[in-house]
Amino acid sequence: MKILTATDRIDGDIQLVAAIGMFDGMHRGHITLINALKEQAALRGQHSAVVTFRQHPQQVVNPEGSPRALMTLDKKIEAIAATAPDYLILLDFDEKLSLYSAQQFLELLHDRYNVKTLVMGYNHRFGHDRSTTFANYVEQGRVLGVEVVKAPEYLGQYAPVSSSIVRQLIAGGRVEDAMNCMGHPFELEGKVVHGFHNGRGIGFPTANVGELPPGLILPHNGAYAVMVSVDNQWYKGMVNIGYRPTLDNGKQLSIEVHIFDFDSDIYGKPITLQFVRFLRLEFKLGSIEQLREQLTHDKALSQKILDNYLANQS
Question: Confidence class of residue 106 from pLDDT cuts 50, 70 and 90?
Answer without folding.
Answer: very high
